Amino acid sequence: MTQYVLEVEPDVDESSRRLAEELLDEWGIIPAGETVRIARLSGGASNVNLRISAGESTWALRLCDPLGERWGVDRAATIQAQNDAAEMGLAPRVVAQKMPAGHFLSEFVEGTTVTSEYVREADLLEPIARTLRELNAGSTTGRVFSPFRDLGTFLEFGDGDGVGFAPQITDELAAVTRIRALFETRPAPRGFCHSDLVPQNFIRHGDTLSLVDFDYAGTGWVAFELASFSCQAQLDAEETHAFLSAYDPDYDEGQAARVELMRAIAGIREACWAYMAEPILSGSTAPLDGWTYQGYAANNLAQARGVLADGRLEQYLSAARHVRPGALF
């Protein structure tokens, strides 16, 4: 039973308020008589993120959509990965959780939410590369991540819902088959990867970057990690070179080709997610103001097609097959 005063911002819907109150009561972290303030945080898509403030303490509360399988999310692995990253000083620590639903409360990181524009304004390519290299060198016991498995999941659920996206990307899916065969056959480097590197999943505080939203984190291909960020930040060729050079000054043609191939995969995966998600989420949630599912899908698909255009697929496949000993991605 609630023993504190609750103040809720108008943008928090009633069902989220009730669930947040139930969880806070169950976890027992709020002192009796304290005033608790609940506000909606931006982002989340299939989840609802809330800021919980009480006295001098602030937390982030994630309320998870029950359809984790549809989104390709393992709730236990998400929490495990975030805590593994927190042990490395790269993410906020999870302080309470509700399983199997996957709801959790974590430390709140005060700082600036990074955007594509801010990456350039604040010259963040090198700090982001450094942060990712540190994370990728670590380990997590949560799960093994594959963007190919996600892509298939999103297509299947979309097809089942009558979205009919697959016929629009026949050529791209043929390329996916060949790229998947390469990565599942060749010894491309793996590491602890976040795997969902929209710039907004970085929080800058002082000279430090923290990562949030570990829904897709696990042991994965480092090339996809770098490609995911390059795609979502819409880095051009010169910026991509600067980013990869900051990560590995000795990167070679094979490494560059693997990132380009995975950039195509990242774009197709995100487009498939958006088409699958739109009928379900468009009426209730959007990750950012002004953001649309169709616009997001179109942008990601354009990036994928840019990689695959003009016969470059064959060139990238040929170069990517050579994995130099000691290569980082």
CATH fold group of the largest domain: Aminoglycoside 3'-phosphotransferase, Chain: A, domain 2
Instruction: Provide the β-strand percentage band.
Output: 15-25%
Overall mean pLDDT stands at 93
Main sheet overview: 6 strands, mixed
Q: Which regions are unreliable across 5 or more consecutive residues at pLDDT < 50?
A: none
- What overall geometry do the principal axes of the alpha carbons give? globular
**Strand ordering within the main sheet:** 1-2-3-4-6-5
Q: What is the name of the CATH class of the largest domain?
A: Alpha Beta
Number of strands: 11
Number of domains: 2
Number of helices: 11
The H/E string reads EHEEEHEEEHHHHEEEEHHHHH
Report the CATH superfamily of the largest domain. Aminoglycoside phosphotransferase (APH), C-terminal lobe
Return Rg in Å.
20 Å
What portion of residues is helical? 40-55%
Distance from N terminus to C terminus (CA atoms, Å) equals: 52 Å
Strand pairing plus helix content: what structural class? Answer: alpha+beta
